C-alpha cells in the first residue's frame, strides 16, 4: 500500500515539473460497443402491435392461390374414332360435320315439333391459339368487322356518320345508306355541341377532309378514322356497306390461359339458304385468319356451330376455307433459297483460299 502511495506522489511531482505523463485509464478501450448494437437492442425492446383484422372473404384476399386449371385447347386426336352411332362421347373423338350437315341438324332440333324456333340465329364459336411469334408474347385482343356477301337481320343499331368533301362523294355515301353525311359544316356543328357523336356507332371519313377532321380527334378518341380499322378510305360505298351489314366480332384472351382466345359471332339465321350461310362462315374465317401471327402451327384450333336455345354444338372443319398452317410469302421463300445457294459457294471459296 505504501508503494502505491509513493508512485502516485512521483507522478504528481512530474506533472508539476512539466513532464508529459499519460493519464490513468481504469477501463479497457476495446470494450466500447460496436456501431448499431445499441440501436438493435432498442428495437428488440419495442413491442410489435398486432392489428386485429376482421373476417375477409376468400375472393378479396391478396394470397395467390395456385389452382390447377384444365387446358382449354381441346385435343382429342389421341382418342379412337367411333365405329357406330351409340357410344359414350368423352371416350371418343368429336364427330366432324360439313357446314350443310350441321345446319340440317340444327334445323331438325328447331323444328315445330321440338324447340319450334325455325328462325333461330346460327352462331359460330371460333377457338384461337393466341401464342405470338415468341414464347413469351401473345396476340393482343382485337375487334373487327368482317364483310359478308349475304346480309341478315343482326338485331344491332348501327348508325354511320360520314365526313367527306365534294358533291359526288356525298351523293355516293347517301346512296350507300349512311345515316348522316357532311363536310366542314358538320364538323362545326359537332364542335359547337349541336350534334353528338355518341349517337353514332361508326365514324367513316374520306382522306380529302382529314386535315379539318383533326379538330375532332379529342372527341372521337379511339373512334377517329384510320386505315388500320378500315374507317378511312376513298371507297366510301364499300366501307358503309361493310359496317352496316358486316359481322362485328371481337377476340379476347382467357383470364387464366393467355394462349387461348375465343370469338363468338352470328353468321345468319336457320331459315337462310345453306349455301349463303356457308359463304358467310367462309368470309368470317378468312377475316379472322388475316390476324394470325407469323409463326408455325395452327391459329384457328376449333370451330363449333351453335343455335340457341339448343345447347347442341357441332364441330366443323375450318381448314376447308383457310390454310391450317402459316405459309411464308413467296418473296421470303425465294430469299431463303438464294441464301442456301450462296452458302456452299462461299464455303468453296474459303477452302480454295486456304489451300
From TrEMBL:
Residues 332-349 have a biased composition (Basic and acidic residues). One of its GO terms (biological process) is translation. GO terms for molecular function: RNA binding; structural constituent of ribosome. The keyword ATP-binding does not apply. The keyword tRNA processing does not apply. Its main location: mitochondrion. GO terms for cellular component: large ribosomal subunit; mitochondrion. CDD domains: Ribosomal_L1 (cd00403). InterPro entries: Ribosomal_uL1-like, Ribosomal_uL1/biogenesis, Ribosomal_uL1_3-a/b-sand, Ribosomal_uL1_mit. It is found in: Mitochondrion. Residues 332-355 are annotated as: Disordered. Keywords: Mitochondrion, Ribonucleoprotein, Ribosomal protein. Belongs to the universal ribosomal protein uL1 family. NCBIfam families: rplA_mito. PANTHER family: 54S RIBOSOMAL PROTEIN L1, MITOCHONDRIAL, LARGE RIBOSOMAL SUBUNIT PROTEIN UL1M. This is Large ribosomal subunit protein uL1m.
Amino acid at each position: 500500500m505504501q508503494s502505491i502511495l509513493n508512485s502516485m506522489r512521483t507522478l504528481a511531482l512530474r506533472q508539476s515539473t512539466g513532464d508529459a505523463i499519460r493519464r490513468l485509464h481504469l477501463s479497457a478501450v476495446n470494450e466500447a460497443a460496436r456501431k448499431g448494437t445499441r440501436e438493435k437492442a432498442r428495437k428488440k425492446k419495442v413491442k410489435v402491435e398486432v392489428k386485429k383484422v376482421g373476417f375477409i372473404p376468400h375472393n378479396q384476399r391478396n394470397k395467390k392461390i395456385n389452382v390447377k386449371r384444365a387446358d382449354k385447347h381441346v385435343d382429342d386426336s389421341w382418342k379412337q374414332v367411333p365405329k357406330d352411332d351409340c357410344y359414350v362421347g368423352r371416350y371418343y373423338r368429336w364427330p366432324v360435320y360439313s357446314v350443310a350437315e350441321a345446319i340440317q341438324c340444327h334445323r331438325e332440333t328447331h323444328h315445330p315439333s321440338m324447340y319450334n324456333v325455325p328462325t333461330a340465329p346460327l352462331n359460330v364459336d371460333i377457338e384461337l391459339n393466341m401464342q405470338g411469334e415468341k414464347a413469351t408474347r401473345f396476340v393482343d385482343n382485337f375487334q373487327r368487322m368482317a364483310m359478308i356477301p349475304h346480309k341478315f337481320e343482326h338485331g344491332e343499331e348501327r348508325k354511320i356518320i360520314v365526313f367527306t368533301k365534294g358533291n359526288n362523294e356525298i351523293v355516293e355515301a347517301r346512296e350507300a345508306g349512311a345515316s348522316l353525311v357532311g363536310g366542314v359544316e358538320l364538323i362545326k356543328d359537332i364542335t359547337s355541341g349541336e350534334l353528338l357523336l355518341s349517337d353514332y356507332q361508326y365514324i367513316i371519313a374520306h382522306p380529302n377532309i382529314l386535315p379539318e377532321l383533326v379538330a375532332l380527334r379529342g372527341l372521337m378518341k379511339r373512334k377517329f378514322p384510320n386505315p388500320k380499322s378500315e374507317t378511312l378510305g376513298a371507297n366510301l360505298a364499300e366501307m358503309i356497306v361493310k359496317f352496316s351489314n358486316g359481322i362485328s366480332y371481337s377476340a379476347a384472351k382467357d383470364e387464366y390461359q393467355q394462349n387461348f382466345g375465343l370469338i363468338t359471332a352470328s353468321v345468319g339465321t336457320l331459315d337462310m339458304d345453306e349455301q349463303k350461310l356457308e359463304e358467310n362462315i367462309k368470309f368470317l374465317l378468312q377475316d379472322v385468319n388475316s390476324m394470325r401471327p407469323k409463326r408455325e402451327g395452327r391459329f384457328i384450333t376449333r370451330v363449333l356451330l351453335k343455335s340457341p336455345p339448343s345447347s347442341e354444338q357441332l364441330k366443323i372443319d375450318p381448314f376447308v376455307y383457310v390454310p391450317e398452317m402459316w405459309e411464308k410469302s413467296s418473296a421470303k421463300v425465294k430469299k431463303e433459297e438464294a441464301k442456301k445457294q450462296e452458302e456452299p459457294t462461299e464455303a468453296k471459296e474459303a477452302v480454295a483460299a486456304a489451300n
